[in-house]
Amino acid sequence: MAFFERLLCAKHRSKHWGGYRVIMLSHVGLPVFIPMLEMRELRPRELTSPRSPSVLAFPGLSVGLSRPQAAGEQQQQRGPETSGYAKKLALWLAGVLGAGGTVSIIYVFGERPRIPDEFDNDPVLVQQLRRTYKYFKDYRQMIIEPTSARLLPDPLQEPYYQPPYTLVLELTGVLLHPEWSLATGWRFKKRPGLDSLFQQLAPLYEIVIFTSETGMTAFPLIDSVDPHGFISYRLFRDATRYVDGHHVKDISCLNRDPAKVVVVDCKKEAFRLQPYNGVALKKWDGNSDDRTLFDLSAFLKTIALNGVEDVRTVLENYALEEDPLEAFKQRQSRLEQEEQQRLADLSRTKNQQLFLGSLTSRFWPRSKQP
Fold first, then answer.
1. Which strand (E) or helix (H) includes residue 247?
2. What is the largest distance, in Å, between two alpha-carbon atoms of the chain?
3. What percent helix, strand, coil does the chain show, rounded to 5?
4. What is the pTM of this model?
């Protein structure tokens, strides 16, 4: 360190030779070549820096050339300036594109229709803005609200037959299971018991497929699962009410008595507006041994054959059950056991009465009439 301190503090003379500046150190008599691009004296840190890419080696002396180091410092100085310019340019372009897009949207969607409307008397710019606002408002309303306040036509009148109850079924997860493979693509598997469900319930229920799928997807699927025409009506995603990210089936828009409507779905959110009108089944995973639709047929058939005036009074008892059909089977089994026990007790009592009657008639025979 003492040598370098003396070196840096020594009196020196400089001359120019070619593209280099030659410094003669007076007290050691050694020349040092420094490029002309760097016209400043070397600092101690630059002379001894281990990161200098090129070094002039002399006996007992190591001095770094500053040309590459100066280029690196220039790049570091230009880096923030370049990034700042890029950010400004990006913001400027984003502003121009945003303004152009806004003007284009107002021009396209706010164009004056051929038929006069309520905005004709406003200034031209106000007309464009109000028509654009109305277009997007109506589009949002179309997504959120059902397409109609009366999704189904009026019930059939005599002499035509109108089933007393309405059954609303979801398609995917309840009746069908989607499967995908690389070889076949998308396929839909029919749930066991589907044909039996339609055949048993068609005389008792007006069957309506109300699915959250689009019509383009669901229409051919319904045709394939119902070749005999048991399904009365078909409703799709555009008929649902969009609430908190869920497609909800609003029973009040069906144009049917809510006391006679049963909704079957694999999601409770699908009938969240009328929770006591729905039966939530477990989503079918494609198992071929599944018996859920057979149990559902028995459950709904029991409701219809007993002439229940308001199905909500029955379904309310199963609203908190994790598996409503399993709970129904357990209750039905318990009622059957109680009924069998009652009949057995009644038969036993009757046999006892017959035995006592025969014993009494043997010991106290009736007198013969003259």
1. strand 246-248
2. 172
3. 45, 20, 35
4. 0.63
